[in-house]
């Protein structure tokens, strides 16, 4: 049998080195717990980076995958796919959207949104109207177009020349956005809460003001709900707490209950700009991924799951605030639902490493923000265990 050390050594040899990996070899998952190849159990408050919103191996996702795997795993998008149709219906009936384009990841969903915005705008107005305004500290993915949309130099470094037609303004600042548009602008892309950038919540009314501004200037509003969507902030989509609706919304992460899938949800008049042959994906929305997603979506959309996320999220924040009183290293706690950031007065990496040793999985964004995105089914007891581990770690600093 391959030992933990052998897996790590082999992995570092033949898997591309695009991640600084922790010395954990993942073996199994159960609810909020990840179990390594030595049988050590970790409380998973990273949840595959906000993917495992139902925890690991949720029975209804497992059943749907097993069943679909024995029936039809893949077929071409040249044909109609029942699970894909069902998922598109669920997404449209539960959002502002009329049409869904399926792909395999968040970056691909944003690519689709960028292509749609350009095509609709250049065909409706002039070929010069293609520019998209994004925000500083945003994150929209790792393909070249989405790296160009992303407002972080460290993610863009080394990949010049980037795709032209993107401008970045301060997040949460409506005036900066208003001043940035020109006759070339066709769309605005935003996260309702910035995730990778450090869990930044915009000021109240910002998203509504952006919506009104977009309507006034015939700009498409693209909301990147890849991290905030699917119950993470306590409602199915984060925009639903903001008294506004986008024109396009992108989803991925939690959509497939752990199976890779992305989606772009759009209003009909815009979506129809992408006609037959204009865009596509071999795997996008395939039977296996959409069967998993129908099962995951059906669970996540239950009022008791969303209510549990709100209740548990506020319990968690209260506990974190208590911790902050005891440990001056903790600067601020911010979040909504179970998307929570803890800003520190120092680098977060040593805390993350120590948490791993003590059986808690978290990560750090923006250098000094610990990110907590546990499964939405997390219990108070599991939150208390996390608080205990964090208390111990901060006491050691
Ligand atoms: C994770 C993420 C992406 C990229 O998704 P991938 O599936 O990794 O391509 C894009 N936008 C946001 C807000 C994300 O959190």
What features would you highlight for this structure?
397 residues; alpha/beta; Aspartate Aminotransferase, domain 1; Aspartate Aminotransferase, domain 2; 2 domains; 14 helices; 15 strands; globular; binds pyridoxal-5'-phosphate
Largest sheet: 7 strands, mixed
Mean pLDDT: 98
Share of residues in strands: 15-25%
Distance between the termini: 39 Å
Please tally the helical runs, counting DSSP H or I stretches of 4 or more residues: 14
Structural class: alpha/beta
Q: Report the CATH architecture of the largest domain.
A: 3-Layer(aba) Sandwich
Gyration radius (Cα, Å) is: 21 Å
The strand order across the widest sheet is: 4-10-9-8-7-5-6
The fold-level CATH name of the largest domain is Aspartate Aminotransferase, domain 2
Q: Low-confidence spans: pLDDT under 50, at least 5 residues?
A: none
Proportion in helices: 25-40%
Q: What is the level 1 CATH name of the largest domain? A: Alpha Beta
Output the helix-strand order. HEEEHHHEHEHHEHEHEEEHHHEEHEEEH
- Can you identify the CATH superfamily of the largest domain? Type I PLP-dependent aspartate aminotransferase-like (Major domain)
Name the ligand types. Answer: pyridoxal-5'-phosphate
Number of strands: 15
């Amino acid at each position: 049998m391959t030992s933990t050390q052998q897996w790590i050594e082999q992995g570092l040899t033949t898997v591309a080195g695009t991640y600084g990996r922790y010395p954990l070899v993942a073996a199994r998952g159960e609810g909020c717990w990840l179990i390594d190849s030595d049988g050590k159990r970790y409380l998973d408050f990273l949840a595959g980076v906000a993917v495992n919103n139902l925890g690991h191996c949720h029975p209804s996702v497992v059943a749907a995958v097993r069943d679909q795997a024995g029936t039809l795993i893949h077929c071409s998008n040249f044909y109609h796919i029942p699970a894909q149709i069902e998922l598109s219906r669920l997404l449209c009936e539960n959002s502002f959207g009329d049409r869904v384009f399926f792909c395999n990841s968040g970056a691909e969903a944003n690519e689709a949104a960028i292509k749609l915005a350009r095509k609709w705008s250049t065909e409706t107005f002039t070929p010069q109207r293609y520019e998209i305004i994004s925000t500083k500290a945003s994150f929209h993915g790792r393909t070249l177009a989405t790296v160009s949309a992303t407002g972080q130099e460290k993610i863009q470094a080394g990949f010049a020349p980037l795709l032209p037609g993107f401008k970045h303004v301060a997040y949460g600042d409506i005036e900066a956005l208003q001043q940035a548009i020109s006759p070339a602008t066709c769309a605005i892309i935003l996260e309702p809460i910035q995730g990778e950038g450090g869990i930044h919540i915009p000021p109240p009314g910002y998203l509504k003001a952006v919506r009104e501004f977009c309507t006034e200037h015939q700009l498409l509003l693209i909301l990147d709900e890849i991290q905030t969507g699917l119950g993470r902030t306590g409602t199915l989509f984060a925009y639903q707490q903001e008294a506004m609706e986008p024109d396009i919304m992108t989803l991925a992460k939690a959509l497939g209950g752990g199976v890779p899938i992305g989606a772009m949800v759009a209003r009909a008049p815009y979506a129809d700009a992408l006609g037959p042959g204009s865009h596509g994906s071999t795997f996008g929305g395939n039977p296996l991924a959409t069967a998993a997603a129908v099962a995951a979506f059906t669970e996540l959309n239950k009022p008791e799951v969303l209510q549990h996320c709100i209740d548990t999220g506020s319990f968690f924040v209260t506990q974190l605030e208590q911790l902050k009183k005891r440990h001056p290293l903790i600067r601020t706690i911010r979040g909504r639902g179970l998307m929570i950031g803890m800003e520190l007065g120092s680098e977060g990496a040593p805390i993350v490493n120590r948490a791993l040793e003590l059986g808690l999985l978290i990560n750090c964004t923006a250098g000094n923000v610990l990110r907590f995105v546990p499964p939405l089914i997390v219990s108070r007891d599991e939150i208390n265990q996390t608080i205990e581990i964090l208390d111990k770690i901060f006491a050691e600093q």
